[in-house]
Amino acid sequence: MLDTQRLPASFYETLQQSLRDALAAEGLDAVVADHHDDVAYLTGFFHHPNERPAVVFVPQDGPTLLLVPELEREYAQAQHAAATLVAYPEFPGLQPPMSYLGAAAPSFRGRIGHSGGLSVERLDQIRAAFPEATLVRSEVVMHSRYVKRPEEVALHQEAARITDIMLVAGRALVEEAIAAGGELPSEAELAAHITTVGTSTMYASHAEVVVVSFLAGGLVYSGANSARPHALPSGHRLRPGETFMLSLGCAVGGRFVEGERTFILGEPSADQRRYYEVVRQAQQVGGEALRPGLPCAEANRICLDVVRDAGLAHYLRHRQGHGIGVGMHEAPWLSDGDDTPLAAGMVVSNEPGIYIPGHAGYRISDSMLITEDGARPFTAYPRGLDDIVIPL
Fold it and tell me: Which tens digit of pLDDT belongs to each residue from 34-89?
């Protein structure tokens, strides 16, 4: 059994000091963050987001503060949250929650950075809590999340191992049904089985699991349903001749990985071969293009040009991919409009797909670690046509 998934206090000490260095470079005296992913990233406190705010305040000088509702105080302590806890009684309460944060740093003056996602209501509360401060929009926390530290890379790698196990388990359930001569599983049954395998594997492998809202599992869709890129599993049963997609992932230590494969039930038709091979080639070319310094938009163009050059541009529905970290989907975006240069240590998805209405969708995804001279996939399930055809 492996040790705890939780990162040590030294990780957060180093991370917070690096953030302070970034604040100084931007001319900021502090940063405030209320998104649950930012809270987890900066302090190690993972929680179920709801109407009660949990907020991190990192000043240039002084301790990091973590504002939590009183009912979360013991949970934050149990997770060894790397911050000084400031609790408020309840929400909405007799006074705004942010006022307790201001009371914990009553003499603060200066420029406070905040993300563009902070709500208007909370922004007003922070202004009232720090009347001598100036609030400045900044993505300094998001940018600090871009490049993963070695401890995070190890968590991503373990998440990939479990994701590959789930892909194997999903295929195996279908093959067992074929061998038994009975009906094939439904999308919902297949999704439930994969989720059970993923979570049970995780708990069997780790002494302490960091629980997040999505721990293991994913989307399962077949036939025409798979032509809707994010369709939820239905009661539709897999049928001979159909394609079906396993869009899976999990989080270890709150660090995500996704791995997706498209399977074909029985001898593929000429169209199925063509569609699959175009996507496989796009994914290969897209992965080989990833390297430090390449703008995200250019990576996206290189990848999707394979589909366009094959005459299938009208079946494209989305970008090449996105960043992955404490969020399954996070910046930077491998998409038109994002010129962020890739950097060693970033983790991104490489997941081109095409979607043919009334027929099926075809997508292959691997989570990729940007290295010093290219990129490598975390997930390892095979991608060749022969590897994804399931004989009947």
Answer: 999 999 999 999 999 999 999 999 999 999 999 999 999 999 999 999 999 999 99
Residue 117: CB atoms within 10 Å: 11
Give 336's contacts (C-beta < 8 A, 6+ positions apart): 297, 300, 301, 319
Sequence length of the chain is 392
In 10 A of CB 300, how many CB atoms?
23
Do the domains 9-145 and 150-390 sit in the same CATH topology, yes or no?
no
For 116-125, write each residue's pLDDT tens digit. 999 999 999 9
**Cβ proximity of 390 and 171 under 8 Å:** yes
* Burial 191-200, CB ≥16 within 10 A → b, else e: bebbbebbbe
User: Strand, helix or coil at 73?
Assistant: helix
| pTM for this model (two decimals) | 0.96
Distance CA 381, CA 361 (A): 19
On whether the CB atoms of residues 96 and 129 are closer than 8 A, the answer is: yes
Q: What is the pLDDT of residue 171?
A: 98
Count Cβ atoms within 10 A of the Cβ of residue 132 and give its class: 0-12 exposed, 13-18 middle, 19 or more buried.
exposed
> Do 153 and 125 touch, CB atoms closer than 8 A?
no
**Cross-strand partners of 246:** 220, 261
Which CA distances in Å does 235 have to 159, 171, 186, 246? 28, 18, 5, 15
Query: Top-level CATH class of 9-145?
Result: alpha beta
Q: Pull the structure tokens for residue 296.
A: 């995200």
pLDDT of residue 2: 63
In the CATH scheme, what is the code of domain 150-390?
A: 3.90.230.10
**Maximum separation of any 2 CA atoms in the chain, in Å:** 73
Domain boundaries, the chain: 9-145, 150-390
Nearest to 191 by CA among 244, 138, 239, 141: 244
